[in-house]
Amino acid sequence: MRRFSVQASLPPVPVPPARSLPLWRAIKVARGNTLAVIPAQAFEVPVFDQSSAILGRSFLVSDPEGVKRVLLDEVANYPKSEFQNRIFAAAFGDGILTSGGETWKAHRRLMAPAFDPRSVEAHAPMMAATARAFVDGWRPGETIDVAQAMAELSLKIIARAMFSGAGDDLGPRMDQTLRAMDVILADFGLIDVVPGVRGLRWRARERRIAAGFAVFDSWIAELIGSRRAAPAGGDLLDRLIAARDPETGLGLSDRQVRDQLVTIFVAGHETTAVVLAWTWYLLSQNPEAEARLHAELDASPGAPPAYARQVVEEAMRIFPPVPRIPLRRAAADDVICGVQIPKGAYVCVAPWVIHRHRSLWKDPERFDPGRFAGERPARFSYLPFGAGPRGCIGASLALTEVAIVLTEVARRYRLKLAPGQVVAMKPRMTLRPLGRIGMELVARAA
To answer: Minimal CA–CA distance to 348: which of 362, 330, 366?
Structure first.
């Protein structure tokens, strides 16, 4: 087995243990970083057996054909696990992330036009203007927490895309809700997947999550009512209210609109903020890539150059915004890459592992935007937004936003990692940084 090494430029990335940790040790390590318990073998084999006394039979699938089988070819045999779906449903209700069956199919059809290329492009001027106005508040030489700054900026952008001018009122309300969610979910651990225990713990959490969304729910109910009476003209809220299923002609109820809005808002805000924070960090540690980005921006005063997209795509490979796709559970016996998967076994697809897999990527710890300059990676070897029918509906919107923000900021500033700054990860549903990432703003010549 090849030794794992992590470049000095990537201090947050844990070196995988040589073998699976004993249960007591895994629980202790996972409290700090759940990704740090994944052993080196998982990054080298098509399917890794990670069965344990807690989860029972469980498999980590990384081979592209195996991933395709789970997420596309045999997707009906691998529904989301009930207990993990419950985590999301407490906040998102019956939104596109949590619904299933015919309800999910109908809602996906109904929502798809709002995220087609023309619709996404219509938001680009607003995204650029919002980013420029946000950066106007910065001053050369000051040190910012780039993780917090990108969270604030992405919150403004997604709120305006969804609610137009009313989105400026939503930001503070939703920020309070998201902070409450963080507190509620902070103590989630391995004990929460233990049968018999998880139900009791999650009933209490569900009540707290509902209370945390009370202010937002009141605000959005009033806004939905006013928009049904008088549409504002073209934002995502108006489009969801007006949308009709092309097969049935049915629209969404107020509650269904709310659930879709919360899903899009939270997922869209969180993933773009995480991607941007890690992108700035990676650029600060890779001066050649940073210099090339600046050179191409200077030569291309209009739309984001191709290299900006390559930078973003490579950042999402190294730090995928969602490190683990929600667990699936086999409805019937199956075989994946020659490995027997028994009925009831949990199946995990982890972009964190796939994006570092030794059979799929050369020097996977190295930051190299050039990987995305030519032929695209195999479809199921690169999953920043999932894949298959349940892949992220807002992937194009998120990628457009990140590229625009990167472009607008990098035209005016270099972001330099503050001296003594320790950078770490906080993997939860998304791959957040742990604490702040202090970065000094260095003005670029006009």
So the answer is: 330
d(CA 302, CA 312): 18
Give the contacts of 364 (CB within 8 A, at least 6 positions apart).
355, 356, 357, 358
pTM as predicted: 0.90
Question: Which residues, listed in sequence order, are joined to residue 52 by a DSSP beta bridge?
Answer: 56
Q: Give the long-range contacts of residues 130-133, CB within 8 A, separation 24 or more.
A: 130/156, 130/157, 130/160, 131/157, 131/404, 131/405, 131/408, 131/409, 132/408
For residue 333, what are the CA distances in angstroms to 46, 49, 58, 341? 18, 15, 13, 6
If you search the block for the tokens 């019937």, which residue do you land on? 332
Give every strand in the sheet of 438-443, ordered side by side.
Answer: 143-145, 438-443, 413-417
CB 94 within 8 A of CB 384: no
**Lowest-confidence region among 281-285, 433-437, 439-443:** 433-437
**Domains recognised in the chain with CATH numbers:** 23-443 (1.10.630.10)
User: For 260-309, what is each residue's pLDDT tens digit?
Assistant: 988 888 888 889 999 999 999 999 999 999 999 999 999 988 778 899 99
Tokens matching residue 186: 């902070």
Q: In sequence order, which residues have a C-beta less than 8 Å from that of residue 281 and are 6 or more positions away?
A: 146, 417, 423, 433, 437, 439
The token pair that represents 354 in the structure block = 């796939």
